[in-house]
Amino acid sequence: MAERRWTLVVVPHGSGVSRKVQVSPPVLKLVTAGATTIVLSALAFGFAVVSRQLDLNHAKQLERENAILSEELGRLHSQLTDLSDTITVIADRDRRFRLLANLDPIDPQVLQAGIGGPKEPGFDSAFETLGVLGRRAVEVRVDLNGLIRRANLLATSFSEAADSLSAHNRQLEATPSILPTHGWLTSGYKSSRMHPILHYARPHRGIDITAPKGTPILAPAAGVVVSAGWSSGFGNTVVIKHGYGLETKYGHASKILVKPGQRVARGDRIALVGKTGLATAPHLHYEVHVNGQPVNPLKYVLPDEIGD
Fold it and tell me: I need a surface site. Which of 126, 195, 200, 253 has the fewest CB within 10 A?
């Protein structure tokens, strides 16, 4: 059986002579295979060239981004250094503030515990695989977390010191510290004294300050008036409860200017000097009681401090 052939007719443009080319199937297959191989090779080469160009562009983009990231990490690290210096200054002020508040300074080891800290394996390991920039990012993060812990510790310390100072200030406001009136000290605190009217010895649980009738009597500290009225022997009497176990008493007043339940501050007028009750002349009988026991009022008068 004769081999089957393909006839290709090549018709030129214009008036040229057409040509016929006979091709056997094996040759046609070979030519087709060769052409296909060339086309596929060309496509593969083109794809490789394009892919390489894309990789180069991507690498340049990553390089630019890494440069920006490196610069930003450097800036953050510098800012963290400044922040650390600022927190160190605050820590020094906190130490002095705590001393003023009568509190022990924070243990340096406790304060230093705020620096550094344990890593988080999942998060930190992922960053450390990114090379130098990853490790720098982890360092910045660890430093920032440490500064946050240290700042929180100092914030708590300042709050504690402020509460202590506030409580101490309230106690100072409630502590008698001035003489309640202008005048002359005519009788001191004694375990036994001859009474000028009754003419027998008995304890004198306060001090007597002689002053003209009508001289203002001032509260020596903040407190609440618990009684204001007549008292046997002491005449018109005011008693103020200051808290912290402190109570003061004012006797022989000519006039009372406050009422029970009224709050007073240091320096407020509470009465006027007089000689009501068992008194021979206008004067103020002043007592200070601590936890229910009378004490020498002069222990609660600051040097050279006299009410206006």
Answer: 200
| Location of structure tokens 């056997």 | 24
Fold adopted by 184-300: Glucose Permease (Domain IIA) (2.70.70)
pLDDT digits 0-9 by tens, 218-235: 999 999 999 999 998 899
Look up tokens 């002043």; give the residue.
286
Model confidence at 308, pLDDT cuts 50, 70, 90, reads: very low
Domain boundary assignment for the chain: 1-11+19-173, 184-300
Computed over its alpha carbons, how large is the radius of gyration of the chain?
A: 49
Say which amino acid occupies 146.
G
DSSP 13-55: STTPPPEEEEE-HHHHHHHHHHHHHHHHHHHHHHHHHHHHHHH
Residue 119 to residue 138: CA distance in whole angstroms: 9
Using a cut of 0.70, tell me whether the model's pTM lies above it. Answer: no
